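Open question from group meeting: does this chain pack into something compact, or does most of it stay loose? Before anyone orders reagents, we agreed to write out a predicted structure and look at it together. Recording both the input and the output here so the notebook holds the full record.
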Amino acid sequence: MLYRYKIKPLSPVMTPFMSDTFFGHFCWAVLYEKGETYLDNFLSAFGDGNKAPVLFSSAFVSGYLPRPVLPPPKRDEIRGFVESHFVEKPYADIRSMANKGKRFEGMTKIKSWNKLRLISIEDWLSLKDDYCETHLLEIFYDRLEDEIDSEIPIFKTEVAASNTISRISGTVPEEGGGLFQREKTWYHKDMELDLYVEINLEEIVPLVKWFLCDYLPSNGFGRDKSVGMGCIEVEQDNLFSQEQFSVNNPNSSVALSLAAFNGIAKYKSFYRLMTKFGKLGGNYAYSSPTGGDPKPYKKPILMIEPGGVFFTNEDLSAKPLLDEVHSDPSIRQCGIPVTLPLRIREDKLYGTA
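Structure tokens returned:
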């Protein structure tokens, strides 16, 4: 069952709203609330052909979804699109231009559209049963007459320099100064984000709701929670129904989460990659799982970003958690994605068999 929650940031955040971070916070919340035995049983339910008890997406601007990562149309198809739309039936702002100027404007618009990483849910629903990049360009073009030049602000990123403070002396170390930089994200006032949660174990539905609507708002999200960062409000979107995303005869799945799991290479797919430098939270942020000095950093993990397309109808929620991501073998990483079905026009793809 797929649920949607609305997140409203109330303060700057130091950690992006990524799927694996939500999963890590959930595991610590389960440990503190239910105990170690419950957490061990929860984690042992992943893999071996079992659907994951719960999976989190990354959070997206409300009303939007990640754009499926697919090859752009061929050059001759783009040139034909520019001729038929920008030259033969130009929108009002460019009607007085010479044809050369119209072509330039068309290529410029398509270049900017190709950079968009999100598409509206409205566009997703109109394309989900026959998706191709050319159809999406048609939608973008049809909106040009009503296009507003100014973009709605979503967030601003601030880069600040900080000093390391010695816990022994309470001062900045003399050698090197311990200087480092950190990014702080400020979301625009009243901005909301959408979080999708897949729950395949009915008994934990109340636990997930408690985690999102009570635990996270009380404890904060990500780094520097103790100094006021990551303050959020969360509420369940009771108007949401996953039936709106149902697809007739789907041939692919689009990831809404960071994805990395054993056997991922066997699937025909398109994707963008990011390297995740994970860090342990909770008690492990200041004490080692096995005793001794803290070892908070995980090994770097190459992960597929939200929007990655897998050409399969297989249920990817049955994949296991990633192991060998830390020197302690008990530490694992969730790279199992929440996915949405899609019917993609494979005859419009290039580089696929």
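Observations to bring back to the group:
The radius of gyration is 23 Å.
The chain has three domains: 2-62+191-348, 75-146, 155-185.
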